[in-house]
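Proteins fold reproducibly. Consider a sample protein:
=====
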Amino acid sequence: MSLRQRKYREELNQFVVEGQHLVDEAIKLGIVKGIYTNLESYANLPYSFLVSEEVMKKITEVIEPQGVIAICQKPALKPLSDRILMLDHLQDPGNFGTLLRSALAFGFETILYQDSVDPFNSKVLRSTQGAIFRLNLIETNLLLFIEDHPEYTIYGTALKNAVSLTTIPRSDSKIAIILGNEGSGVNELILQKTVANIFIDIEAVESLNVAVAGSIIMHHLRRLEP
């Protein structure tokens, strides 16, 4: 299946989801182009193709197929939200997916990413548990975005030359948080463009996993209650 490869997902603007939960979410949004299934509950849909269990095992990427795979159109881009999560060279699918779930939970509904793992990678999709369908995902040059959008207060993340997260006030202004590569962090050129670079006060360990750190920061900087 060609859509297992990133270049074809980008060329066709489509992606693949597996399992009843993700397929049902995609159906609700009206982005499903076709379904391959060996489950009777999906067999009567106009874009559904009934296949054997043997065929399902050949086209699935999981060890134990859940009986349904859908080809989906990527959701249309939306206007920028007031809370933005920016991801610079993030490579681990699990971290990316976890951050998408946290972003949705804490109101960071726009995700900008550069040179990162494809958010429509099957591993990312599974780890988001459907959150990806309700987010605005934009691949872009982060430096250019910062320069073109002075209305956003941009916070980087760093272990050096940074201030404690506890000193950053919550507000209703437009803000963006930048998280970087699991090994090297945020690009230094990007860090030079931020309003402030922040770290999380911790004990007993040197650093936190990027998905954990990002979730903590987004929770702290979520929109104030009305």
User: Anything to note?
Assistant: The first helix runs from residue 6 to 12. The chain has two domains: 2-73, 83-220.
